[in-house]
């Protein structure tokens, strides 16, 4: 273990802290985290965490969700500027307007959203549980926010519901084009194409498998194939290679890189634990309102 990793281990003990990391953060951070996973898994870990401090190696909405679910813990973020742009991409007035338009409506909010947006929503979803949750809702009309692409993918699988879409998007996943994917397939014809549903529908349509980061890792690990074209942020390569050292993974271009996730480094994890800075604070009324949507997700998804 190098010095920095050792310092972090010592600080974790001293602070009675746990380190959670998303699959998109740097390999070195994933390597020393106590838990690494997709958004759904990490929300469940945060909910049940008994250590005093949760250090969240991820973007703002992840730390906020941890604090909403487990307010008695101190939640700290290694870099306060690590924020997901899509988490802000819905206008609250638009939610009010759609609510006025439809009686039988559920506002379904991707977990990649601010606490305020969650507080205006009926239920949260992640990419790994959205299908199950939307199917279970009694409402016919589904306003899916903020991500249009995940919404359209889920909508295509549940034709009995009427979906209303919002125009939010992830700039990392939408930079993956169908053309890039087709070229990668031409270069590696026996590779399977694994796609995150934040990609656009023309990319999703080329996929052998569509799922969350954990879903992609599990699929590749279980598959008999030994070559894969990866259509998501390339941070997943760390776990893919750990679990599948003899399989080969190809990217589809040079932009599969989330600059916000990559703000998290061993240095800022160490500094945050040492100084106990960047604590997530939420207004209690807002927290309780946002919690309803997360609680409902956890209830239906289990
Ligand atoms: P999942 O890990 O839940 O698939 O989410 C992807 C993502 O973009 C997180 O920001
Ligand atoms: Fe947000 Fe996209 Fe980065 Fe995920 S990969 S945190 S959705 S910008």
From TrEMBL:
EC number: 2.5.1.72
Gene3D superfamilies attached to this UniProt entry: NadA-like (3.40.50.10800)
Pfam families: NadA
One GO molecular-function entry: transferase activity
Pathway membership: Cofactor biosynthesis; NAD(+) biosynthesis; quinolinate from iminoaspartate: step 1/1
Top-level taxonomic group: Bacteria
SUPFAM superfamilies: NadA-like
InterPro entries per record: NadA, NadA_sf
Cofactor: [4Fe-4S] cluster
Principal EC category: transferase
Keywords associated with the record: 4Fe-4S, Iron, Iron-sulfur, Metal-binding, Pyridine nucleotide biosynthesis, Transferase
PANTHER family per UniProt: QUINOLINATE SYNTHASE, CHLOROPLASTIC, QUINOLINATE SYNTHETASE A
Record's protein name: Quinolinate synthase
Organism of derivation: Anaerostipes hominis
Gene: nadA
């Amino acid at each position: 273990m190098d010095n920095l990793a050792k310092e972090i281990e010592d600080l974790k003990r001293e602070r009675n802290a746990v380190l959670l990391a998303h699959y998109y953060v740097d390999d070195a951070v994933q390597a020393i985290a106590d838990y690494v996973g997709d958004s759904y898994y990490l929300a469940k870990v945060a909910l049940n965490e008994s250590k005093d401090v949760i250090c969240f190696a991820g973007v703002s909405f992840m730390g906020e969700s941890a604090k909403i679910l487990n307010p008695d813990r101190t939640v700290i973020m290694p870099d306060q500027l690590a924020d997901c742009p899509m988490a802000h991409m819905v206008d609250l007035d638009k939610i009010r307007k759609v609510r006025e338009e439809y009686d039988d409506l559920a506002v379904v909010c991707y977990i990649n959203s601010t606490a305020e947006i969650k507080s205006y929503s009926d239920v949260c979803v992640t990419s790994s549980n959205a299908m199950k949750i939307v199917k279970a809702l009694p409402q016919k009309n589904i306003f899916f926010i903020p991500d249009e692409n995940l919404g359209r993918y889920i909508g295509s699988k549940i034709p009995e519901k009427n979906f209303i879409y919002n125009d939010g998007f992830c700039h990392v996943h939408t930079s993956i084009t169908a053309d890039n994917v087709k070229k990668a397939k031409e270069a590696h014809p026996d590779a399977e194409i694994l796609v995150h549903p934040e990609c656009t529908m023309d990319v999703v349509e080329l996929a052998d498998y569509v799922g969350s980061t954990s879903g992609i890792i599990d699929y590749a690990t279980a598959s008999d194939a030994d070559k894969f074209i990866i259509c998501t942020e390339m941070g997943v390569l760390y776990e893919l290679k750990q679990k599948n050292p003899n399989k080969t993974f190809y990217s589809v271009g040079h932009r599969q890189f989330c600059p916000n996730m990559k703000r998290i480094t061993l240095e800022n994890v160490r500094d945050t634990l040492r100084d106990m800075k960047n604590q997530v604070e939420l207004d209690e009324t807002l927290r309780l309102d946002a919690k309803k949507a997360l609680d409902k997700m956890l209830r239906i998804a289990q």
